[in-house]
Amino acid sequence: MFRIRLPLGGISMFGLILIAGCPDQPTGDGSQNIDGPYNPTSSRTISGTIEADSITVPAGVTLTVVGDLTLRSRGAAEIAGEVVADGNAGHPVVIDAQDDIVVSGRVIAGNGNGGDGGILALVIANGSITLQDGSEIAADAAGLQHYVFLSPRE
């Protein structure tokens, strides 16, 4: 399992974080295009693509991923709660934002035993990716390869 934990100080960067495994690519069960913010107030299962003006997963809320998941924000994305793909075959999780992505919670793609994991990608067009104190991003899979692509802000 590849895991990034940030107990002190956090980190901020520009570009793309991609933690890649060698998973099957299951199909999500649908998509939603929301005119306004996506801000779930309770834990739920989720898959497919959700596109909204902004994405916020508040502290105390867990999104359990049961198929491919793309959270696409036309603005910023903030993950203070949990986005977890940890079933029998950890599914791919993509968080794609036009502006900043801030993670202070957990984003996990994998089943925790080094088996069939998914990919985890944090992608921004503008802004930065910030992993705050205590945040955790992780992925695991057999034959796991890790990629981190960073591009400087111009």
Helix count equals 0
Rg from Cα: 14 Å
Average pLDDT confidence is 74
Largest sheet: 11 strands, mixed
Q: What's the order of the H and E elements?
A: EEEEEEEEEEEEEEEEE
According to DSSP, the number of beta strands is: 17
Total domains:
1
Task: Write up what this structure looks like.
The structure is a single chain. The protein is mostly beta strands and 154 residues long. The protein has one domain (2-23, 39-144). It has strands at 2-6, 11-13, 15-20, 31-33, 37-38, 44-52, 54-57, 62-73, 77-79, 82-85, 93-97, 101-103, 106-109, 120-124, 129-131, 135-139, 145-150. The strands form 2 sheets. Strands 1, 3, 4, 6, 8, 10, 11, 13, 14, 16 and 17 form an 11-stranded mixed sheet that branches. Strands 2-15-12-9-7-5 form a 6-stranded mixed sheet, with no helix packed on it. The chain starts with a strand and ends with a strand. Mean pLDDT is 74; it is low at 1-16, 19-28 and 150-154.
Give the helices and strands, then pairings.
Blueprint: E1 2-6, E2 11-13, E3 15-20, E4 31-33, E5 37-38, E6 44-52, E7 54-57, E8 62-73, E9 77-79, E10 82-85, E11 93-97, E12 101-103, E13 106-109, E14 120-124, E15 129-131, E16 135-139, E17 145-150
Parallel strand pairs: 4-6, 5-7, 6-8, 7-9, 8-10, 8-11, 9-12, 10-13, 11-14, 12-15, 13-16
Antiparallel strand pairs: 1-16, 2-15, 3-14, 3-17
